[in-house]
User: Fold this.
Amino acid sequence: MLDSFFKITERGSTVAREIRGGVVTFFTMAYIVALNPLIIGLAKDGDGKFLGGGDAPNLAAVAAMTALMAGILTILMGVVGNYPLALATGLGLNTFVAVGIASKMSWADAMGLVVIEGLIITVLVLTGFRTAVFKAVPAQLKIAVSVGIGLFIALIGLVDAGFVRKTGSGPVPVTLGDNGTLVGWPIVVFAFGLFLMIILMVKKVKGALLIGIASATILAIAVESAFKIGPNFDGATGAVNPKGWGLNVPAVPGDIVGKPDFGLFGQFNLLGSFDRISLIAGILFIFTLLLSDFFDTVGTVTAIGYEADLIDKDGNIPNNDRILLVDSLAAVAGGAGSISSNTSYIESAAGVGEGARTGLASVVTGVLFLLTTFLAPLVAVIPYEAATPALVIVGFLMMTQIKNIDWNDYGIAIPSFLTIILMPFTYNISVGIGAGFVSHVVIRLVQGRRKEVHPLLFLVSILFMVYFLASPINAWIG
Assistant:
């Protein structure tokens, strides 16, 4: 039955290989259950509230919902799309939602925008328009967006770990550690985690990021037990300890297995954001989310298809429409679950490398994610310094795509450069994307190569110009 439904033999695989591939994919991307709570679970919205509307973060609830959605959507991809592709909350997208969107409204409003973006992508898939939008942006600018997000993620990891900190004064905004010096045991834990992940990746050990997070957390618990370091900021007294832990003070958890909290589901306000921000700003937020979802998915699906040898001589992917439909619905589900947009993961390539060729591998990965929902209490003991090395590594992996940009063509090179540097420098993903699009259009016009610019890109660039000039325009029109 399994062989017939998933076409296992037809694709040159076996049940055992599919199961093994599904397990490997899970271990290579299970880190998202720990990282997503650290990114969106600790950020405050425009009302000063944490995700869920509380005055204190609920990391276990975010972890449980992250695992639940990843499990359901990955199983759906396996059954409907029959493709060895796993889905979970998108790194980069969750950062943009936390830093760029939720900070300007409530969490419910921000998740409403995510739902809208997912619905739009779903419509575009059903109408066949998604391909047209994909062609509007030059391929190398898409690469620049991915690289820029990678640098942004890496910077966030370094800042959250305390490796990079604000200077507080002077012309240079950031510095190494505490006034140019690395201090405290937490930095040692960060360095240990980072180098362990690097070594495991060099040795091609599956699940390197997850092993690194777990090992660094164990070390952090031992260090805290021995030296009683405490937090770097005491909310009760206001005392600052530059040598303290940046997140949770690590300790052996009282409960390892617990009843998962799915209370975040349904906490979204579909149109509430437009009461807090302008229509243009809302459209640009949605477009930025849509753009990332679009190109991340198309690139991931294509890469997995080539690695699994599932693409035919004409470049067609089996069940392509079904795959894109499930991915689009994943964005809607992520917003409805209050955990940011869910998308396809390139880490699925690890499972393909182990032999996965069908959706059965995705079903296995999804089941493991569902089981993980009962381990959510473990997330509450992971300090920043143990988890943030993974952000640095993910930033590196995204950075490797930069070699595919033609640096001899100024019409591509300069926009790519602006896109890449402005994301981390401004702490804003949409600024980088907008600067890249606008500069690309302007340079191509100056070069007399207007025909190379898609009309849709002209429209988007105009929207971004309005976005950049919103303040003077508002002053002008009163």
